[in-house]
Write a structure and sequence with these properties.
Blueprint lengths: L12 H22 L30 E6 L18 H8 L2 E7 L4 H10 L34 H7 L3 E7 L25 E5 L12 E2 L2 E2 L7 H19 L5 E6 L11 H4 L10 H15 L23 H34 L6 E6 L26 H10 L16 H7 L13 H4 E7 L9 E3 L3 E2 L3 H9 L6 E2 L2 E2 L23 E6 L2 E6 L2 E5 L5 H7 L16 E5 L15 H17 L8 H11 L8 H9 L7
Parallel strand pairs: 1-7, 1-8, 2-10, 2-11, 3-4, 3-7
Antiparallel strand pairs: 2-9, 4-5, 5-6, 8-9, 12-13, 14-15, 15-16, 16-17
Helix pairs in contact: 5-8, 7-10
């Protein structure tokens, strides 16, 4: 009999039966393993099986609709809801029937604020210490601009909890290389939990010719103002959703491009302010301070900081300067009032459809302090950071083209620095200045008729933009999921404001917070704050970059740290660094710990990133710093 070396070739009935049994067992195990969440019974036939249908996703009974409103580049002293001289009747009404939070903080610039807001985590922890734009990101965990999947957004959480989710307006945290119609779309709003999105993915856009996206496709705008477009779409989303599923709660994230540059608005709005700012920015600050004291949103003994030395005293300006500078502010004011009116359309629709009382509304009036990017004299058609021309010539150009301010032709309209300081009253400094309350402190309104009893109340608890997510979940009765789409979720770092809704004396739960933007940095703990401005100041640096000279390398060791007791000195007028060196050292050590925990290191400022791109990136190799700024600030570009 012939023998075979490989006995696997021997055919055996017994062996076949064993193999069949083994395969059947493995198949059954595999079937059960694939359907681990299946709670029925598998049988060989339908007759000896038990069906199982998972319960449909449902929000908790009575869960509120949720509306988050986030404005762009609006200082603490702009809106009339917080004592400013710009009329915002919608915000006034929401604040008067809700709560004003006076000690709320953002990150000092747009993308990090939005990343922290959407995730409930610090911006560095979610990889957005800078931007998602290619020329302003870097290849480190805190800096690559790509929010990881284990840092789920509020939209992902609420959709998993039975909500429909909509976003309109500015998104700002999609990487540039993903922002085409070819995707990939996992970092578009629709890939981060939103059922629908209508707006723009970048950081700024023309208001009449926006870089417009609907869901996952770029579309052509029709010439109407972006505020009108996003408001129409927001109302449409709610209408269609409620018709299909009456009573199902929705989440709306409403983030207009306003009032970021370009400041563009119909003359009917800007002309409402004709002559209203002729007294200038010094008088504006004094009047706002008085209003804020009457409202109770600042201490009764508050004093304004000294005028910044970069800014001229209004009464000493020339008639031409006053004329053109006042017009810039008229346009900005009209832009903000118009934005308030468009938000009012959403509010009125909720009232008309009996959804208003059970809608939780958050209004953050600004994602940072007022913008300092309009230079000392203002801009109309292009960024002065890339021109290299004198202030006097730019002033004359603005005067000659004064009729274009605020129009579709004014493609980069932004007011002069003096108005940034004025609309930031009572704080010093402005946007980008993460070391200062002027860069990070913004008004917050919470309105919820079914849940707030203290109508018109003032709340002074320290809070941060990453607190809004956990506060929303607490009010809605929703627990943050351990997993989203099978991915275990990282800890949520924000602290809930829930206990403060009906208790003005509730403890401030947010005890520690770091800040870092473009080298400017700070650390807060229990009312104390240590802060360091990174010099040369980024405004001065940008303005000097009309030449092609390479900026000097950053030197963080020479930055001077200051110390403030915000409980006694809320607008940082009394530097205590020399008086309490031990406290300063303690906070500096805490900043180092927080920086390590939140991916802030390596410390990078914007000019470091530009220089790295110039020398190391293919598409940008050989370009000057000025070339890259022109690219970043072109109409419809990626300016912050």
């Amino acid at each position: 009999m012939k023998k075979f070396k490989n006995n696997s070739r021997i055919k055996s009935p017994t062996r076949g039966i064993l193999i069949t049994a083994l395969l059947a067992t493995q198949f059954g195990f595999a079937q059960e393993n694939q359907n681990a969440e299946f709670k029925g019974v598998f049988g060989k036939t339908l007759a000896d099986s038990k069906e199982y249908w998972p319960e449909p996703l449902k929000a908790p009974k009575g869960a509120p609709n949720v509306v988050w409103i986030l404005l762009d580049d609006v200082g603490f002293g702009a809106s009339s809801a917080f004592g400013g001289l710009i009329d915002t009747p919608t915000f006034d009404a929401l604040a008067n029937n809700g709560l004003r939070y006076t000690n709320f903080h953002t990150t000092a610039i747009c993308a990090p604020t939005r990343a922290a807001l959407l995730t409930g985590r610090n911006s560095g922890r979610v990889h957005v210490s800078g931007f998602s734009h290619t020329i302003l990101s870097a290849g480190f965990p805190g800096w690559d601009g790509r929010i990881p999947s284990d840092k789920g957004t509020i939209a992902e959480i609420l959709r998993e909890s039975g909500y429909n989710t909509f976003a309109v307006g500015k998104y700002g945290v999609t990487p540039d290389e993903d922002a085409t119609d070819a995707g990939p779309f996992d970092r578009w709003p629709t890939g981060k939990g939103f059922d629908h999105f209508y707006g723009f993915l970048g950081s700024q856009t023309d208001q009449y010719n926006p870089d417009l996206v609907e869901d996952q496709v770029h579309i052509k705008p029709d010439g109407r103002h972006l505020n009108e477009l996003i408001t129409d779409k927001a109302i449409s989303y709610i209408q269609k959703q409620q018709k299909a599923a009456p009573g199902k709660p929705f989440f709306l994230y409403y983030a207009p491009g306003a009032a970021h540059a370009p400041h563009q608005v119909a003359k009917e709005w800007s002309d409402k302010y004709k002559g209203k700012f002729d007294e200038g920015w010094d008088v504006y600050r004094e009047r706002v301070l008085a209003n804020q004291k009457k409202l109770g949103v600042i201490p009764a003994n508050a004093v304004l900081p000294e005028r910044n030395p970069l800014i001229g005293e209004w009464k000493k300006l020339t008639p031409d300067q006053k004329k053109v500078y006042a017009r810039f502010m008229e346009v900005y004011a009209g832009f903000l009032t118009y934005t308030d009116a468009e938000i009012g359309r959403v509010v009125n629709y909720l009232k008309e459809t009996d959804q208003f009382d059970n809608t939780l509304i958050f209004v953050a009036i600004g994602d940072n302090g007022a913008s300092k990017e309009g230079s000392l004299v203002g801009t109309i058609n292009q960024s002065l950071f890339a021109q290299g021309t004198s202030d006097e010539k730019n002033l004359q150009d603005n005067l000659a083209n004064i009729g274009e301010i605020g129009t579709p032709q004014g493609r980069n309209t932004n007011y002069p620095l003096g108005w940034a300081q004025a609309t930031n009253a009572p704080f010093k400094n402005w946007k980008q200045d993460a070391q200062s309350e002027g860069g990070t402190r913004n008004p917050l309104i919470i309105h919820y008729p079914n849940g707030i009893k203290d109508k018109g109340g003032i709340r002074n608890q320290y809070s941060h933009v990453n607190d809004i997510l956990p506060t929303t979940l607490d009010i809605a009765g929703i627990k943050a999921p351990e997993y989203i789409k099978g991915i275990k979720q990282d800890v949520i770092q924000g602290s809930s404001l829930y206990t403060s809704l009906n208790n003005a004396k509730a403890e401030s739960l947010h005890k520690v917070q770091y800040y870092y933007i473009f080298g400017n940095r700070a650390i807060y703990k229990d009312g104390w704050k240590a802060a360091a401005a990174h010099l040369p100041d980024s405004f001065a640096v940008k303005k000097s970059l009309g030449s092609n000279e390479k900026p000097a390398p950053s030197n963080f060791d020479t930055d001077v740290w200051e110390l403030y007791n915000l409980n006694e000195d809320f607008n940082e007028r009394n530097n205590l660094a020399k008086k309490y060196p031990e406290k300063l050292a303690e906070l500096q050590k805490l900043f180092d710990e927080q920086a390590k925990e939140n991916n802030v290191y390596p410390l990078i400022d914007w000019q470091d990133v530009y220089n790295r791109r110039i020398h190391n990136t293919g598409a940008d190799k050989g370009k000057t710093v000025s070339d890259l700024i022109k690219q970043a600030t072109k109409p419809g570009g990626t300016n912050n």
